[in-house]
Design brief:
It is a single chain. The protein has 2 helices and 6 strands. The chain is of the alpha+beta class. The protein has a domain of about 90 residues: Immunoglobulin-like. The strands form 2 sheets. It has a 3-stranded antiparallel sheet, with no helix packed on it. It has a 3-stranded antiparallel sheet with strand order 4-3-6, with no helix packed on it. Strand 3 and strand 4 form a beta hairpin. The longest helix has 24 residues. The protein is elongated, with a radius of gyration of 36 Å. This is FxLYD domain-containing protein. Keywords: Signal. InterPro entries: FxLYD_dom.
Length: about 140
């Protein structure tokens, strides 16, 4: 009789353990505690101004001898510190839209808030158009 008692007690413990395990296995997936509920709002970071920007229009033309192509314009240093070095680069294209070269200019010590009048030169023949690639500096 003592053996039967132990078997019954052991069976009851096993049944309780199985019920307890089955009862909690799915509950974590379907219930969301109040503390975890958050209201999500989208916030945008303020637009960051570029360190260097092209001011106004650019002009491109061959020199009087047709030896070099000059792209002129102005670049502003929008930072609050002097830039040790600034460079502007343009891709050069022929009449069919093929890239045939580059034109570039650079300057040292562009003052904070200063405007640089650049003159980027390209030495290729047959330049029909150009496109700004990059203004970089540090």
């Amino acid at each position: 009789m003592k053996k039967k008692k132990w078997i019954i007690i052991a069976s009851v413990v096993v049944v309780i353990a199985v019920i307890a395990a089955a009862g909690t296995s799915g509950s974590d997936e379907t219930q969301t505690p109040q503390a975890e509920e958050h209201v999500k709002t989208e916030t945008k970071a303020p637009e960051q101004q570029e360190d260097f920007t092209l001011e106004g229009e650019t002009q491109g033309a061959y020199d009087e001898y047709g030896m070099s192509y000059s792209i002129t314009g102005s670049i502003k240093n929008n930072t609050d510190h002097d830039a040790s070095y600034v460079q502007v680069t343009f891709n050069l294209y022929d009449a069919q839209g093929n890239q045939i070269g580059t034109a570039l200019d650079n300057i040292n010590n562009l003052e904070a808030g200063g405007i640089w009048k650049f003159d980027a030169l390209g030495l290729e023949e047959g330049i029909a158009s150009y496109r700004l690639v990059e203004i970089s500096g540090f």
